Amino acid sequence: MSVPVSVQASPQDRDRIAQLVCGHMATRVVGAAASLGLADLIGSEPVPASELAGALGCHPGALLRLLRAMAALELLTETEAGVFRLTGAGSLLRTDHEDSMHSFVGMTTHPAMLDAWRLLDEAVRAGSTVFDRVFGTDFFRHLGQDGQLSEQFNTAMRQSARIAARVLPSAFDFGRYGTLADIGGGNGTLLSAILAEHPRLRGILFDTPEGIAQARLPRRCERQSGDFFAAVPAGAELYLLKSILHDWDDARSASILDNIRAVIPEHGRLLVVEPVLPEVVEPGESALAYLSDLNMLVNLGGQERTGAEFARLFAGSGFELADVTPLPPARFSLIEAVPV
Ligand SMILES: C[S@@+](CC[C@H](N)C(=O)[O-])C[C@H]1O[C@@H](n2cnc3c(N)ncnc32)[C@H](O)[C@@H]1O
Question: What would the mean pLDDT of 267-290 be, rounded to a whole number?
Fold first, then answer.
């Protein structure tokens, strides 16, 4: 089908397309900087490229080119020719920064996250994940088969859970309840932060055996491993799902919700922490949630959802959407649902 084009494109529009298709190169720049451990060698003072090349055993000319690309991408500032210091964004690549994104970058640029993206068009045609076609199994089984990758994934999740861990404990009145179960809670970063602020609350961390392997939990928290498609632990009034439903399509998500509905008491609450997409894409809005949505399609067969889509999903499993509270600066919202 061919249609006449009446929309004018400016030279800036050409730049925009060029920037977008070169985006994968920027991804590689950030990934290489993280895997070389560059940021850890640059303190608060500017450092000459030649010194960094010596410390890292890199080709001096090639490293200088990488550093200049990083400066153009606003991760470094070139204070004088060949001398660099970290910007605020670049400092997040340090492993010792309290908000470090080093492992998050390592995981997001890992072949397990990137390789299936080559088949995005196939995923769009089929409306389903293409991860299995590339790796021969699904994403979480693939993680489960590789201890090192699983640990890297957990660390990356812990780094991205930290912001939510700062805002969620005060965003809901956890003190009114006795026990909170974090379903698919990974290594318990978020649950531990909530329990630390609510001393009378008890916790249940539930995940796969690999998921909870590195959990460090307070004494008020028990850990249980299992499969949330089979059953979830009973005995809590609050059930938390952070970054879980978006991993799965509606049918798989419904089976997790059905299992929670089977054990949640009538006065209980379901707390879902995820991005909520607006009903219509708003001009100037960050593309991150939409890219995450496609990442879910490609790698997991999941999706990000609008408020109306959450409401429909909940209704099918005997829950009613009660409230949605954005949690700035996290890109997530707290979505509350009650059993009906
Ligand atoms: C995207 S991570 C979210 C982790 C954590 N909630 C967070 O936000 O940091 C998804 C979690 O679901 C867990 N998971 C995947 N499949 C599972 C299953 N069938 N049963 C229980 N947990 C599962 C994974 O091990 C992982 O910890």
Answer: 93
Do residues 81 and 126 share a domain? no
Report how far residue 334's alpha carbon sits from residue 325's, in angstroms, rounded to the nearest whole number.
5
Continuous H helices in the chain: 11-21, 23-36, 38-41, 49-56, 60-72, 88-91, 102-108, 111-114, 120-126, 131-135, 139-144, 147-167, 189-197, 209-212, 250-263, 288-299, 307-316
Contacts of 102 (CB under 8 A, 6+ apart): 34, 39, 92, 93, 94, 95, 159
pLDDT of 21 reads 96
Together in a domain, 76 and 134: no
Q: Does the residue 103 lie in any domain?
A: no
pTM of the model as a whole: 0.90
Between the CA of 45 and the centroid of ligand 1 the distance, in Å, is: 40
**What distance separates the 2 farthest-apart alpha carbons in the chain?**
67
User: How far apart (Å, rounded) are the C-alpha atoms in residues 259 and 233?
Assistant: 9
Domain boundary among 45, 62, 95: 95
**Is residue 188 within 6 Å of ligand 1 at its C-beta?**
no
**Statement to judge: residues 67 and 132 lie in one domain:** no
User: Which of 163-167, 222-226, 294-298 has the least mean pLDDT?
Assistant: 163-167
Q: Determine, yes or no, domain membership for 102.
A: no
Residues 209 and 267 in one domain: yes
Q: From CA 29, how far away is CA 224, in angstroms rounded?
A: 40
The total number of structural domains in the chain stands at 2
Q: Is residue 157 within 6 Å of ligand 1 at its C-beta?
A: yes
What's the gap in Å between 207 CA and the centre of ligand 1? 6
For residue range 213-245, list pLDDT tens digits in order.
878 898 999 999 999 999 999 999 999 999 999
Q: Is residue 314 part of a domain?
A: yes
pLDDT, position 164: 86
Rounded distance from Cα 167 to ligand 1 centre (Å): 20
Answer yes or no: do 78 and 190 share one domain. no
Q: Best-predicted range by mean pLDDT among 24-33, 96-105, 213-222?
A: 24-33
Closest ligand 1 atom to 247 CA:
1
Q: Is 246 a catalytic residue?
A: yes
For residue 247, the enclosing domain spans 111-339
* Any domain includes 58: yes
